[in-house]
Specification:
The chain is α+β, with helices and mostly antiparallel strands. Helices cover about 30% and strands about 25% of the residues. The strands form 2 sheets. It has a 6-stranded mixed beta sheet, with no helix packed on it.
Length: about 230
């Protein structure tokens, strides 16, 4: 096998490994907390992600959402999603809830929903419940995972102190960087200018020394001139 053919085969194998690795990364699951502040008369996404611990195990899952308003004592069923079909179970949310989780699969890991036209009555506690069935070779295993989300509805978007401070620090950093660049440019310009003036001065002095018959600066004692003996 020639060296060129072997190099091509190595490149093909490397490309296949990269594709396989990219496919594995695309299927990764990360649990992210849901937002908890909704704005009245706008849409709001309730996030709920429950990652399966062992990706190689086949599984099916159903998601149920429960809601308890501020004045309620118990949770009531809000929404249910199973077998790729969702149902709104609370008339207070009729025609306002949409499924935003996984689609075209029974192995659900993202059970997020979207509530349109949020009202102040939507303030309260939401519970997301994953009912998962893990399918092994000889048996099945049932698990339930729940997440609690306390949602507050506000009239307008309210920015947190951390967000404001981070924006201020960003502008301060930008201004500080620009000032530093200006100072650095001035310093470099003055240094280059001084070096240029020094070079011009040395060039002028060199011309004067050569004109006066010196081969070295006056501070350096020149070698005595060599007089040639006149022929008799």
């Amino acid at each position: 096998m020639s060296a060129s053919v072997e190099a091509r085969l190595k490149l093909i194998l490397l490309a296949l490994l990269v594709v396989l690795q990219a496919g594995a990364c695309a299927g990764a699951c990360v649990e992210v907390d849901s937002d908890t502040e909704a704005v009245a008369n706008r849409g709001f996404k309730l996030g709920c992600i429950s990652c399966k611990r062992r990706g190689e195990v086949k599984a099916t899952a159903a998601v149920t959402w429960l809601f308890k308003a501020l004045n309620d004592d118990d949770f009531s069923h809000l929404y249910s999603y199973e077998d790729e079909h969702g149902s709104i179970l609370d008339e207070r949310f009729e025609s306002r809830v949409q499924w935003r989780g996984n689609r075209h699969t029974l192995d659900l890991q993202d059970g997020s929903i979207y509530i349109a036209n949020v009202t102040f009555n939507d303030t309260g506690t939401y519970m997301c419940v994953f009912s998962r069935v893990l399918v092994y070779d000889d048996y099945t295993f049932h698990t339930n995972t729940s997440k609690i989300i306390n949602v507050r509805v506000v009239p307008t978007v309210m920015r947190g102190i951390a967000s404001i401070l981070s924006e201020v620090m960003m502008y301060v950093s930008i201004i500080g960087l620009q000032l530093w660049l200006v100072v650095e440019m001035i310093y470099c310009y003055r240094k280059i200018s001084a070096a240029g003036e020094e070079a011009l001065r040395e060039s002028a002095l060199g011309k004067c020394w050569r004109r006066d018959g010196f081969s070295h600066p006056p501070s350096v004692s020149p070698s005595p001139p060599q007089h040639t003996k006149m022929r008799e």
